Automatic annotation (TrEMBL):
UniProt xrefs under Gene3D superfamilies: 5' to 3' exonuclease, C-terminal subdomain
Location of the region described as Disordered in the Swiss-Prot/TrEMBL record: 87-116
Name of the protein in question: TfoX C-terminal domain-containing protein
Pfam families in the cross-refs: TfoX_C
Length: 116
């Protein structure tokens, strides 16, 4: 049975993310806490928004995510930002080299053997 999908505020996509990081039941999520649950999803490579953080908190408090008090949202965001700051920096590809523009004129267009 998929309990995460039955939690208030948790839609199919969020439930799938939570399952994939090992949080399958309300008890699993409560034990991890909203910030750790959010961070597990983020560390797994998904791109959750803060709405997931609020949704998890709302699910644990059995209220709509928009009813999470502003003070609590601020606490959650501060804790998530601190946790995100502790993540390793993403690896980026090196920037591409300089771009050269070539202007073709009638004198510089190569001949094509198929146009003979």
């Amino acid at each position: 049975m998929n309990e995460a999908a039955k939690l208030r505020n948790i839609g199919p996509k969020s439930a799938a993310w939570l399952r994939q990081v090992g949080l399958r039941t309300r008890e699993d999520i409560a034990e991890a806490g909203p910030v750790e649950a959010f961070m597990r999803v983020k560390r797994a490579g998904f791109k959750p928004t803060l709405n997931l953080l609020y949704a998890i908190e709302g699910a644990l408090q059995d209220c709509h995510w928009q009813e999470v008090p502003d003070a609590r949202r601020t606490e959650l965001v501060s804790a998530a930002e601190a946790a995100i700051a502790g993540l390793p920096a993403p690896r980026h590809k090196p920037p591409a080299g300089p771009v050269r523009t070539t202007v073709l004129t009638a004198d510089t267009v190569p001949e094509r053997p198929d146009e003979a």
